[in-house]
Amino acid sequence: xxHNSFGHLFRVTTWGESHGPALGAVVDGCPPGLRFTxxxxxxxxxxxxxxxxxxxxxxxxxxxxxxxxxxxxQEDGSMITTGTPISLMxxxxxxxxxxYGEIAHQYRPxxxxxxxxxKYGIRDYRGGGRSSxxxxxxxxxxxxxxxxxxxxxxIRGALVQIGTHKIDRNNWDWAEVGNNPFFAPDPKIVxxxxxxxxxxxxxxxxxxxVVEVVAEGVPAGLGAPIYAKLDQDIASLLMxxxxxxxxxxxxxFGAAEITGEENADQxxxxxDGKPLFLSNHAGxxxxxxxTGEPIVARFAxxxxxxxxxxxxxxxxxxxxxDIRTKGRHDPCVGIRAVPVGEAMLACALAxxxxxxxxxxxxxxxx
Amino acid sequence: xxHNSFGHLFRVTTWGESHGPALGAVVDGCPPGLRFTxxxxxxxxxxxxxxxxxxxxxxxxxxxxxxxxxxxxQEDGSMITTGTPISLMxxxxxxxxxxYGEIAHQYRPxxxxxxxxxKYGIRDYRGGGRSSxxxxxxxxxxxxxxxxxxxxxxIRGALVQIGTHKIDRNNWDWAEVGNNPFFAPDPKIVxxxxxxxxxxxxxxxxxxxVVEVVAEGVPAGLGAPIYAKLDQDIASLLMxxxxxxxxxxxxxFGAAEITGEENADQxxxxxDGKPLFLSNHAGxxxxxxxTGEPIVARFAxxxxxxxxxxxxxxxxxxxxxDIRTKGRHDPCVGIRAVPVGEAMLACALAxxxxxxxxxxxxxxxx
Amino acid sequence: xxHNSFGHLFRVTTWGESHGPALGAVVDGCPPGLRFTxxxxxxxxxxxxxxxxxxxxxxxxxxxxxxxxxxxxQEDGSMITTGTPISLMxxxxxxxxxxYGEIAHQYRPxxxxxxxxxKYGIRDYRGGGRSSxxxxxxxxxxxxxxxxxxxxxxIRGALVQIGTHKIDRNNWDWAEVGNNPFFAPDPKIVxxxxxxxxxxxxxxxxxxxVVEVVAEGVPAGLGAPIYAKLDQDIASLLMxxxxxxxxxxxxxFGAAEITGEENADQxxxxxDGKPLFLSNHAGxxxxxxxTGEPIVARFAxxxxxxxxxxxxxxxxxxxxxDIRTKGRHDPCVGIRAVPVGEAMLACALAxxxxxxxxxxxxxxxx
Amino acid sequence: xxHNSFGHLFRVTTWGESHGPALGAVVDGCPPGLRFTxxxxxxxxxxxxxxxxxxxxxxxxxxxxxxxxxxxxQEDGSMITTGTPISLMxxxxxxxxxxYGEIAHQYRPxxxxxxxxxKYGIRDYRGGGRSSxxxxxxxxxxxxxxxxxxxxxxIRGALVQIGTHKIDRNNWDWAEVGNNPFFAPDPKIVxxxxxxxxxxxxxxxxxxxVVEVVAEGVPAGLGAPIYAKLDQDIASLLMxxxxxxxxxxxxxFGAAEITGEENADQxxxxxDGKPLFLSNHAGxxxxxxxTGEPIVARFAxxxxxxxxxxxxxxxxxxxxxDIRTKGRHDPCVGIRAVPVGEAMLACALAxxxxxxxxxxxxxxxx
Lengths: 366, 366, 366, 366
Hints:
alpha+beta, Chorismate synthase, AroC fold, five-stranded antiparallel beta sheet, 8 helices, 22% strand, globular, disordered C terminus
């Protein structure tokens, strides 16, 4: 059982709160013999790091990751995995706990305050404690390890919708994702989103978004029906991200609207003698098993619940209160969810990759 | 690990293929002391049973469930659970395996034929074998047990969309669901769907759909962050249903389009002295934990991939072939997915209900 | 979580009671492409079957196993596994429930009657219900599947002690195990045990025993430290067998009595260029990982608690009672534990074999 | 799946190597609302700490534990658990990695060197890396948390045998355990062991031992048949301790030697109106479920494999070598296994305690 763990052969356990001394992840099951540098992991944390533009929270965290176990340090500064658990730690440095004193006994609408109190009878109110999106730093670190596991697999994500403003998929250019503060693959949407989000931000409001994550180079045959389907495990991990309210694979909810003729991807033998799908409505998964086509998943993030407008709520003593959430927050938490979604997809794939091939058998035969 | 199992304290393992002698489920972790009759389980199987209208497959199966273990038979014909695993078996009776001979070596587009062959190198092609939606009979039987576990919880489902035809939510009436062959909660949509689906059926085509499942009376406090969130586990189980391509909780993808002011559910103390949510955009779950409001989930089912129109594909020997799927099939498999979705929701909730309360401690103290 | 399941990649779930209609096992994770006949499984059940000599219970059960799923039947009567769950069922035929009416409310000393009642508040008293050693038939069937998984691995067991009468290990001859009703590897102990057990049996008494199970041909490298050590998982499964009170690996408790010089197995390169252990005190496992030497485990079985001598106990209403257990029972339940121990060892090894190599990756590459 | 985790509702994941920067445990599933101080955990680590007498390794580690998450710090310096994962870290301070350079490519007999290399193809040879008994510090810290979970349960351990020298059970006095460097409950054995172990130590040799751990105050009803039996889980965890080769419950292997009349514990109603067992051969467990009597388990620890006598072995390149193990080691590693065994028993019981009662349901109702 796994309140704070996920995966089976590639198994990640995260720990830590928003305002504790540190947070981290233990990655268990990483195959031995993989060489990497700290920078290979840090690069993903930097992508998720707060304070990088005016559209995300102004909390300042360096989010420097430490590797405490599971590797043999090499003379060139790199590390080689040994097959033992990799403990990753990120220290919290910029905690302004005083921001939260007022809400220690009040339930912020849309947050987990009420439900944590109901469930546990005690709650670390400082920055949302364990329910803070800060926990996703640990996921991103673990995702960095997951990426090492699968040679030839590329995992990328992009923001495809903010509020009702969607990208034009005809403009999709992966190279553009790094050129704007939104991870937008469509350069033409950038000024639209900038103007829209500036308005949201200045109003002390927030808005939802949709993220798309894609894995290319995934071998056919990953996933284990009936209850360890690849799409099921991807859905589970994406839904576990803070504020996510919907997940779809391939054409997703769009599949409900079309006919069997339109939806089912036809096949032909390719010129290279390999099976070829003529389309990818399935998002790379049939019967819970990867087809070899790109894995495509999308998830919807609700608007940040922390807003400056006064809202009706109650407190722990059962009194009606009106709350305005102070503290530093993201006007659109969906932006920073892009690297988190990538990490979750990487972890899900790494887990099924190892289930299929075993943790160490392959290594031994090389 | 659990290729064919799900749940932790309420744990279900299913087995069986479309054209084997039988299929079934082992339900492990059901608390002792629950009294039920065979009819209490059979009623849900009857709801899912094929051949009940022209809009579903004409395969005829009685789907009679047997209870092989885990209960003490009582003199009045009822049974009482003992806390040991409950083995449920449904025998297959109407198997027309000859329908499938032709496709033994051909990959039907949209089906799991290709991926099973890639993964396993062998495939029970008869009716899709393990990948057949027939496996969901076992889920529905297990769901019948799950419903016994939680006193006061009501779990219901309805079809809310076929193709682009959506119900009018203002007309929602749960009492109507049993009055039409679609599990439609809106009586006005019924003639529209009838006409539309008749066209689809006669054309040998198929179409997708959206199902909504709702659980009322769920106590606040179920669900275990961070990686055993209630919404995560619901999403996982709904996505595991055959042909499901998307899942959402509460307002789901709609949450991406609105602001924090619109989305976060405000609270007030109710006249009964209990906390009251003024809306339920969250679908009854905050921070992965139930709020006490109704749990609301929707899932999108792709159109049945078995259609009479000839489609391009390949065979196991790597030759291009054109396939027209024969056999008996559902023009809209989404209809029969309603009781399956209910069962999955029931199982997810029963599991978290027991995690919270323990398997037997409560019983002992009564 | 797994009240009634064990294993991870080779995962077995058993169900059924002593006096229900049937019992069985679902074997999940068996690799595809393995060909076997019903006889390949039945042979192990026949070995465990009651009523085969005067030294075991006179209950008569054919214990015929049925395979309900997970295989493609072949024209020659054999079956090939498909990678989907294999459902094995054994129907109960010789149930004399009336034997047990008297003890429905009395707690037999040494049995699980009291603890089941305390835990569950209800108990299937007929033949001990789920706590009956009859459940081990399902284990033995599953073990038959497990043996198919590992080519070149031989798993055998023998009885090495009854009461204080131990075999002479110098006489060990595996070929003798099938030549006597005790699975004794030492033909000289047979008349001793016969005379001793005849006395026990006629006195309506019972006695304990020790079983040794050995796996040869196990590749080096199986087992996953720190908490999925091969010896740990073997100990867990052997301890799960009814009436087992102790487990040891290699020289076991004997290791406590000797020095490091005596205990640690030295190594040399063999003439075949392979590493060679000069002894096997470790029982084939170092640091939780197999060495390539034979895996050797022993377990102690307590005397059958069902005896004809009157014993002091209480009943469910809290009254003192004196009980004499009727019904048919084994004077030395350790005898029939031999095939059960073999099955548990086979399952533990199959699980780790697949963890190491993956469920299907190897198959695909052939 | 759980290479480096154990437990289900009380779930512990450990990480770290002998000579890495730190090691630790993440304890997931600890109920909320438990107040403790750092000293409550440190006390158990101090008991296990090396360098406390001439009979254990002279490595000097303070083994100071830090709590990095899962608690709300209180003004008085204590902490209250919040139900979120508790991350415990112990920094390594006295690492003499240079001691191990020579054996980087040689396989020490009796150690995990060979098997780790076979399995992983890479090995942290510094102090045995992950296979070092230093990992047990993390277990002991986790055990400290486990003890908090069960009010009224007392868990104690003692050394009962070194080599062939056994304590006299008639002299058993728990109060004596803290009065000698062996955790011996029999003061008369102390001079015997001192003299014997001094000889072993001076000879650069080592010897095995047997530890007994006892839990009193355990409520009846813990444990979940058939494959999550309490004795099974205790055996699994005790066998997972480094160097353990045998485990027994109650009279253990002794049960094999006696009759049903002698072995089965009779019952009577006590004067307090509660069920009373007249003996405890079962070691507090029947049918895998606790009886309410003390849980009694013993485990055998092999002699430390690190000895000064030259031994035959091979190196990673397949050459014969003769090895004499340098470095600081325990002449009888069984001594320091006492607090480790206690910790494992505490964790197993805490897990089943929570399975029975649920993680949080009870708390909410107080």
